[in-house]
Structure formats: C-alpha cells, structure tokens
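Checklist before submission:
- one chain only
- standard amino acids only
- sequence pasted in full

Submission:
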Amino acid sequence: MLALQTDNGKEFDNFALRTFFADHDIALRLSCPYTSPQNGKAERIIRTLNDSVRSMLIHSNMPASFWAEALSTATYLLNRRPCRATGTAIPFEYLFGVPPDYAHLRVFGSFCYPNLAAATPHKLSARSSACAFLGYPLDHKGYRCFDLASRHVIVSRHVVFDETVFSYRAPSSPSSAPVPGPVIDNPVFMPVAGTSSRPPSAPC
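Returned file contents:
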C-alpha cells in the first residue's frame, strides 16, 4: 500500500483528500504536533527551498516582498536538478518522461527587456521597458518580468536579458547601465496586488 506522510496541515488532511486516498488505496499518515523529525524528507526539502530563496534574494538585492516569486523559481529549478533520492533521474523526467531543457534558464532578479510593441499607444513609443526577471509562468511558455516603472508583471516569450546587471542594485558606473535591445512578441500583462489591471503605458 502506498502512503503519504505529512504534518497536520489542513491542506492535506481534509475530506476531499481523504476520499481521494481511500479510492486509490493510499494511507494518510500524520506526524505528531510540533514533531518535525517525523516528517524529515519534507522538512529537508523546505530547508533547501528556504536556503535557495534567501540566496536568490540576497544575490539579486531584491526586497523580501518578492519571496513568493523567488520560492516559485526555486521550486522550478529544484524539480529540474539531479536528485540523490532518484539516482540518475530528475524529478521532471520522472513526471514527464523526457529530460528537462536548460537553455531557457536565466538569473533571477537580473535586468530584462520584454516586448511591449503590442501595447504601445503610438508608433514612436518605446518598444520595451526595464524590468526585473521574476521567473517562469506555469501556464505560459515564456518569462515573468516585473516592470520597475509601472509595477506590473509582464509575461512575454521573447525577452532580452542582461544577466550581469541586477534591477535592484545600483550600477557601479553610468556605463554599466544596460541599454534596451530590440524584442518582438506580444506580452501578457498581469497586475500586481494593489495596482491597476490596465496594461502599463510604455514611456516615450
């Protein structure tokens, strides 16, 4: 019989999941309250993710308010790296049956310039805007970019990256500031909590 070991969090211990486990002959095992050693594997993964999130935020000098974006990206990367528990296989490969592609990976928090051509008010408007790279959307094949001016999240397929410069770090000299390059694609705008849902206007 298969078994799922977890803590007493209600995201796992509820009627819907207990019914699902019973239908699929899966035993639900719960650790004692405040006894994390009984759930050691999950706790070790949580520690790995916490260490990754902390390192990514410090390396990019991004504020702690971006912890959820860093956590999502850390999880994305963790599922694509080799794992001792699975031998030579990778969690992504176990799930999808094919090895992951690493060519699209970028440095978290680095400067990026997504395409804004489809949202510009006129032909002379800027085609891009300086953004911070936040990670990879789950439902799009592209990148999540945080527009530093409008504070909107832009999802775009084609993005120009400068992975040597970070959006929340002051440049060491004026010459180190990146220059936007040409990009082509249609962006998808996603408002950040507390902001307008309207697409940002590109600066002139």
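Reviewer check: Residues 110-191 form one domain.
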